[in-house]
């Protein structure tokens, strides 16, 4: 965890989360996972710590942490249990979108509740026929006087069952100059008539994080549900907000990778083979060295993406790099940790079995890694990030 330049107050926040993870979270993870019990008490704990307000400005009751501090908190939380980090990630992205691109009325209406966790946010983007290609979504919001009539089907909605605020991407007419659909973000309240939770997706990991289908069947929304004041800016607002999500995902992947390395190091120091603990075997030492190097590199790249975004600079390339590298590093570290555990790594009594199942989510969440590679490649082709890459201009 990179805490260089943190103030005393910021360090205190990170340390408070670390204590919570150590004392309250880690001792319960195995039991909660085994019995598939929703972590009601731990959820209350992260509410009391104010973690649902990480991206909410102070005037609306949030912590408004700087992004490098936000990333460190997400890493510490994910290192304890990635399920808890998953409750916060998309919620923080929605809070950022509303606070940055919403109207003052929207900020006052939604952010105080989001800061306390009384209101939970989720992203409704992916559709059965439109995954990475969000331009081809079919969800439509038809203007009818002072309202929108919204119809559409969204899938893979993380926290969608328990969320109360659904930030939803929809088509709001056509751009006359280009002939392309105008895409807008709508702040949809779950209680709206016509907004329904459909199928629940059962995943290989994160069993206590609800991932569902959201069906919107002719729901009537006020025009004030439009994020901001102008239609057609949905992709611009979304891409800016997803940089926050990608930094959070990268930090969470670093946390999970750190947990995998910790498990491998501990096990290697206890397991004996050929008369010595296996951390004395060179093959294991080389694997641990590679794992540790990947972890630190992922952490530093994530911190740099957070720093650049915090400074108000364009960060789509760096946030994509951080998400790409950290998730791939996490997956490799988890696999190497399982190899060090040998057959025991495949048994669910050992934490690495869960970690190994959770790691692949970061390869496909917040934009698949191939999509993130395209983001990076396009910036390279534009020649706009020579300074980031250290290339001659």
Automatic annotation (TrEMBL):
Q: Name one Pfam family in it.
A: Acyl-CoA_dh_1
What residue stretches are annotated with the Acyl-CoA dehydrogenase/oxidase C-terminal domain? 234-380
The reply on keyword rRNA-binding is: no
Keywords, A to Z?
Answer: FAD, Flavoprotein
In what residue span(s) does the Acyl-CoA oxidase/dehydrogenase middle domain sit? 122-218
Q: Does the keyword Flavoprotein apply?
A: yes
> Which domain of life does the UniProt lineage start with?
Bacteria
Domain (Acyl-CoA dehydrogenase/oxidase N-terminal) ranges:
7-117
UniProt cofactor(s): FAD
Q: Which InterPro entries match?
A: Acyl-CoA_DH_CS, Acyl-CoA_Oxase/DH_mid-dom, Acyl-CoA_Oxase/DH_mid-dom_sf, AcylCo_DH-like_C, AcylCo_DH/oxidase_C, AcylCoA_DH/ox_N, AcylCoA_DH/ox_N_sf, AcylCoA_DH/oxidase_NM_dom_sf
UniProt-listed PANTHER family:
ACYL-COA DEHYDROGENASE, ISOVALERYL-COA DEHYDROGENASE, MITOCHONDRIAL-RELATED
Q: Which family does it belong to?
A: Belongs to the acyl-CoA dehydrogenase family.
Q: What is this protein called?
A: Acyl-CoA dehydrogenase
């Amino acid at each position: 965890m990179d805490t260089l330049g943190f103030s005393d107050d910021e360090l205190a926040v990170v340390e408070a989360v670390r204590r919570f993870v150590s004392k309250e979270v880690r001792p319960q993870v195995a039991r909660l996972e085994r019995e598939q019990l929703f972590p009601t008490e731990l959820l209350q704990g992260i509410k009391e710590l104010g973690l649902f307000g990480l991206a909410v400005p102070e005037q609306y009751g949030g912590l408004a942490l700087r992004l490098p501090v936000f990333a460190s908190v997400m890493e510490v939380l994910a290192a304890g249990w990635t399920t808890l980090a998953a409750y916060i990630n998309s919620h923080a992205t929605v809070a950022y979108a509303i606070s940055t691109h919403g109207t003052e009325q929207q900020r006052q209406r939604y952010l105080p509740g989001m800061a306390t966790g009384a209101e939970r946010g989720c992203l409704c983007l992916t559709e059965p026929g439109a995954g990475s290609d969000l331009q081809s979504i079919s969800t439509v919001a038809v203007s009818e006087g002072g309202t929108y009539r919204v119809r559409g089907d969204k899938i893979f909605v993380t926290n969608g069952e328990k969320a109360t605020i659904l930030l939803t991407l929809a088509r709001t007419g056509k751009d006359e100059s280009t002939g392309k659909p105008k895409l807008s973000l709508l702040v949809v309240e779950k209680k709206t008539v016509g907004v329904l939770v459909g199928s629940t997706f059962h995943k290989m990991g994160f069993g206590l994080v609800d991932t569902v289908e959201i069906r919107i069947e002719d729901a009537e929304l006020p025009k004030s549900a439009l994020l901001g004041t102008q239609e057609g800016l949905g992709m611009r607002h979304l891409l800016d907000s997803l940089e926050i999500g990608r930094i959070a995902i990268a930090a969470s992947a670093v946390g999970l990778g750190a947990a995998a390395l910790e498990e491998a190091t501990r096990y290697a120091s206890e397991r004996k083979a050929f008369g010595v603990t296996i951390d004395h075997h060179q093959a294991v030492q080389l694997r641990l060295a590679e794992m540790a190097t990947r972890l630190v590199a992922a952490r530093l790249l994530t911190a740099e993406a957070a720093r650049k975004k915090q400074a108000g600079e364009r960060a789509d390339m760096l946030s994509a790099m951080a998400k790409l590298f950290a998730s791939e590093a996490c997956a490799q570290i988890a696999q190497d940790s399982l190899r060090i555990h040998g057959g025991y790594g495949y048994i669910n009594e050992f934490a690495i079995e869960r970690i190994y199942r959770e790691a692949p989510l970061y390869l496909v969440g917040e934009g698949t890694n191939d999509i993130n590679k395209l983001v990076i490649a396009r910036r390279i082709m534009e020649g706009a990030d020579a300074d980031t890459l250290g290339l001659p201009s």
